Automatic annotation (TrEMBL):
Signal peptide: 1-21
Coiled-coil ranges per UniProt: none
Residue ranges constituting the Soluble ligand binding domain according to the UniProt record: 103-152
Keyword tags: Signal
Positions of the Polysaccharide export protein N-terminal domain: 22-97
InterPro entries, sorted: Poly_export, Poly_export_N, Soluble_ligand-bd
Keyword Transcription regulation among record annotations: no
Protein's name according to its UniProt entry: Polysaccharide export protein
Pfam families linked to this entry: Poly_export (PF02563), SLBB (PF10531)
PANTHER family on file: POLYSACCHARIDE EXPORT PROTEIN GFCE-RELATED (PTHR33619:SF3)
Lineage: Bacteria, Pseudomonadati, Pseudomonadota, Gammaproteobacteria, Vibrionales
Length: 175
């Protein structure tokens, strides 16, 4: 039985929660929920950790760690470096995203508000989550503002990919 448990644990470490969530291109942000697993060390494993606006959290033996702006791989490397030597000989760590921060859909849609991000989400799917267009919606005047960029809103098409934290605004039509 213990061999099966070890095999399952190794498989869990080998395969991240989501391919997008473990990629080197996704930066952890406020509103994300992450998971930190240290194989064989229950007291160092955190099943679900909400990242607040400070981006900092207390981690056993290492104290305050900053998660915001780091990829899951960067945070994993920081935890491995901190635990290696004094606490563990060769720590096996996995960091993954359990839940992404919300996206927001505003303007001429039936149910404006915040919605849970899902990998592969496009503007048209986000609009569908928000109940669809109203009768006055300008279907070609859709803008996205990225949470992590200091850019003005960008006009986009319905097939535009959405990222966690994005704000989508559908303008009103004059006709």
């Amino acid at each position: 039985m213990t061999r099966i448990c070890r095999l399952i644990a190794l498989l869990v470490l080998a395969f991240p929660i989501s391919s997008f969530a473990s990629g080197n291109d996704y930066n952890i942000g406020a509103g994300d929920k992450i998971q930190i697993v240290v194989y064989g060390e229950e007291e160092l494993t955190i099943e679900e950790l909400y990242i607040d606006s400070s981006g900092e959290f207390d981690y056993p033996y290492l104290g305050q760690l900053l998660a915001i702006g780091k990829t899951t791989e960067q945070l994993k490397a920081e935890i491995i470096d901190g635990l290696k030597g004094d606490y563990l000989v060769s720590p096996k760590v996995r960091v993954g995203i359990v839940e992404f921060r919300s996206i927001f859909v505003n303007g001429e849609i039936k149910k404006p508000g915040g919605y849970e991000y899902q990998p592969g989400l496009t503007v048209d799917k986000a609009i569908a989550l928000a109940g669809g267009f109203t009768e006055r919606a300008a279907r070609k005047s859709i803008y996205v503002t990225r949470e992590d960029k200091n850019e003005p809103k960008n006009k986009v098409s319905l097939s535009h990919m959405v990222s966690p934290g994005d704000i989508i605004v559908i303008e009103q039509s004059f006709f």
